Amino acid sequence: MSTAGAPSPELRVEAHGHAPALRLVSHPAAQRYREDIDGLRAVAVLAVIAFHANPRLVPGGFAGVDVFFVISGYLLTGLILGALEEGRFSFADFYCRRIKRIFPAYIVVSLVTLALSSWLLIPNDYIFYTTSLAASWAFVSNIFFSMLSWGYFGQRTEEFPLLHTWSLSVEEQFYFLFPLLLIALFRYARKAMPSVLAVAGIALAALSQWKTGEIKSYFLLTSRAHELLVGSLTFFVLRRYPARPGALSAAMAAAGLALVVGSFMLIHKDLPFPGVNSLFPCIGAALLIAGCRSDNMVSAILRSRPMVSVGLMSYSLYLWHWPIFAILKYRQVEITLPVGVAAVAGAFVLSWLTWKFIEKPTRQNARLGFRPAILRLYMLPAALFMTVGLFSYVTEGAPQRFSGEMRALISSYSFERDLTRSCSVRAEDYKVVTLDYLMANCAFGADVPGKARVMLMGDSHAHHFKPFVDQLAKDAGLKAVYHVQGGCFPTELQVTDRHPERGPDTCQQRNADLLKLVGNFDYVVLAGFWASEPERELEKELRYVVDAIVAAGATPVIFKDNPFHEPDLSRCILYRKRGWMEAGADCHIPYREAAEAQAEYDAIVERMQAAHPRTIIIDPKKVMCDGKECLTWTDNTALYKDSNHLNTRAAQMLGDWYAARVGNPFSARPNR
User: Fold this and answer.
1) Which of 79, 161, 380, 622 has the most CB atoms lying inside 10 A of its own CB?
2) DSSP labels for 2-57?
3) In terms of Cα–Cα distance, which of 645, 498, 543, 629 is closest to 155?
4) Model confidence pTM above 0.90
5) Which domains does the chain have, with CATH numbers?
6) What molecular functions are annotated in GO for this chain (predicted)?
């Protein structure tokens, strides 16, 4: 799901009747236009499209990005080095070519996705889209998307129209840095150039492997630069060893094709990536570039007219195909075989039109020099799209696009966030927590003098229950504090490998610090997405924490979890009211499914109470469910923000309901 790398903006010798766009006289390896490289582009972009249409077809199709990066590194090195050796390298010429190649098509895609997003996206999603649009024009969309907590393969990412621009930003960042490196090496260490690049590639590959456990590493140049350097080193090798027809070239081409296709079929989203696994498609691409210099069966396939035709418009194909799939999925259209075929066909039509009438004419316009190109094709569009992003942010997603009733429903999806990350932290934000720190930064509940008597700790589910606890604490006249970390159960005190993306020990250290403080409170509230934890480990760890709370003289309060739902029903009522689903569509969760999914975890919580009768259990299902179903919305108010997290308004409302219908567990002072 989600995108996998952009075809490299074209860096090649143009032939076929027009004046060459580039001559590399001193480099036979790069002198002529190579149809097989366009054929290789076709292989890569078709794999990416197939993966996005149906990941089961080509589980590793996202590795097409790695093939594109190798091609970029190979061609970019030849272009710059050839110009340097001929004494004609110019940054203005270099970036003029990049501007004329990259931005004309992307201007059109940006305008079309902006128009569709302005019509379809609700305010929070619209803010996200317009911010990603601005980030893409600032060449930092990879950094923007790296900040997503759910990562590249998360469920929501498949609805982001511009997610695929992360790879364009990687290449654009490389275009800024790599020419400077090559120029420096050319002037001061010309003979050592391949060796320096090889050492840099090895070091960066090692860094990429080391960082594969971090969600953000997928998007960053530091995790991808070694792939571009594989292409660069391929250029140096081929320059030294001219093509020789025969069995060796054929074997290299066949081995390269096997590695590339094998990577597309055998790599999958659950494997560490990029890191070492990215070297398989990269080395395969390098072998194809080397082996297809000579005539053989593989080069004949790549040079065939259909493959070359697809390769020539691969950049436009990449730009168009992902927004089509993303908008269909956002619109709740199931990608069946007919829909998928129609989507791919539409991408091909739009891509051909873009290539024929926008890409080619602009690229071949010799009168469009650097200054007019950067003004018309980059600065003015970038200013426009960044202004749109600012407007969207200032107006909170331009809600005036919707009716009053729809705005009220949409506003209920909002979620209160700790923007300072003082009390709702990420692994990298963690600092030692003290009682004074909690009182100064993380207080909520009743505004009364004296110490806090309630502490809430846990993961993102503890965070979404904070407004619930806030209502109960205010009703009971109690001050409370909280400290939560996404993905970090309040029970984790042993170092585990269950969440490698969090970084070393921050979760366990946070819980250990908080557990030292429990004796300062009357109530210690524990909440978590229990169903995502192995049952045996959860029971053992929860028992240890509850024992520690009781031993410190506090009363444990454990939330049973709210119902969760797959597929995600959180926006069902919104889509139904927008006419995207049948009017009679059932947007609630069948009670039997909810109860069965949580039965064992609820039983674990009940066993904690059996061991320590003072333990209080809060079960939100008591106010969310009857014997038939569990609510996902009520009275034009959504209860969820996604498949398992409550939104802020819902948590407040459920807290009030619980106090009124079940009773406030904080209303009686516990015996200490």
Assistant:
1) 161
2) ----PPPPP-S---TTSPPS---TT-GGGSS--HHHHHHHHHHHHHHHHHHH-TTT
3) 645
4) no
5) 28-400 (no CATH), 424-564+594-622+645-661 (3.40.50.1110)
6) acyltransferase activity, transferring groups other than amino-acyl groups
